[in-house]
What we know:
Layout: H1 8-34, E1 64-69, E2 72-77, E3 80-85, E4 93-99, E5 105-111, E6 116-122, E7 127-130, E8 145-150, E9 155-160, E10 174-179, E11 188-189, E12 200-205, E13 211-219, E14 224-232, E15 240-241, E16 249-254, E17 260-265, E18 272-278, E19 288-294, E20 297-301, E21 307-313, E22 320-326, H2 350-353, E23 369-370, E24 384-386
Antiparallel strand pairs: 1-2, 1-24, 2-3, 4-5, 5-6, 6-7, 8-9, 9-10, 10-11, 12-13, 13-14, 14-15, 16-17, 17-18, 18-19, 20-21, 21-22, 22-23
Amino acid sequence: MSRQYWSLKRVVVMSLTVAVWLAGGLGAYLYLGNHRTNLGLTPRRPSEAAVNAKISPLSRLPGTLYLVQQGTLYRLRRGAFTALLSSPGGAAGWTQPALMPNGMGLVLVRRDYAYSDLYLIDSAGRIQRQLTHNANATVELNHWAFYPRPSTDGAVFFSYDPKDIYNDYNVVLAVWSMPVAAEFGQAKQWTLPERYSGGDVQPVPLQSGAVLYTKYAFNQQQGKILGQIYLTAGLGAVGEALTPPEDDCSQPAVSPDGQRLAMICTGAGQVGNIEVAPFDGTKLGPRQALVSGLLAAQPTWAPDGRSLVFLAPQAISGHFQLWQQQVPVEGRSATATPTPAPRSPAAPSPSETGGKPSPTAGAAPPKPVQLTFDLDFDATSTIAWHA
């Protein structure tokens, strides 16, 4: 006599078991879906970011800022982002905007696969003129131009790679200048970089005619290439170091009144501090760490000199967001813009940052305020801020 395996009772039990499995799996999926983080998602374009003008500190930033995301130049004004120059696509992209002295235009870099050039644009993003022509049919003869910074006397300073005739692949940048209204044939080299180091970058012309810049050189004690803030008094003059090599300082930014200098110092570690020091045109005073233990970049002064904006990653996503840091004034903290529960990074100990603590002065500054949350600005591109 054959045995009946699929009785009514067994079918009902199996159906209930499958239903329980499906319900449990679907419930777990929905629960986990409601608790997923958005940090790993593709960042939005700045022009798509929604800003609540009533509560967002982004909408209360004075003046106009220019930033770059994925090779596109954006203008930020009254909390709204506008794309001024779209990325050319492929290997090309716009980067490193710098304001003309009258605020009516910018100089910026168009970076391509094996060269980069400087362009002059107006405040609406229309290209007025190409300042350099560094592409060559022979790749080894291409050149790079980076970090433009116009001066008040009609010149533009930038980093450029004069070729090593014995080694075409030894790309070492030096500080150069040229009249904005002239051709590259009138350009002049200001500094002599260290060989095989990356060279001299991020020039900042001063009213006195001197130039600040970052000099990279191999440090025997650390066994690393480290940066120092340097000052050269004039064309061809020997530069003078304003920071020690072991502090690994870079990205100098002079305040609008010319009396303070902001910079990034890592102490040869992976992360660093945003520091500010008094500056008399030739020497630095005691340095104060405003923000500690961040992978911060591009400190940029507000037109009134009371705060800085900078770029730093948002938590674990690695997407660089815009932050604002109030700067203490005469030993007192500047009044911060009221914000709803800003996200602030913790300040780790010196052992966590891998570098020695920098000298501090005055009262402790307030914590930085995160201004954007779902974007991803180019951390190697400078920020321009006009009143």
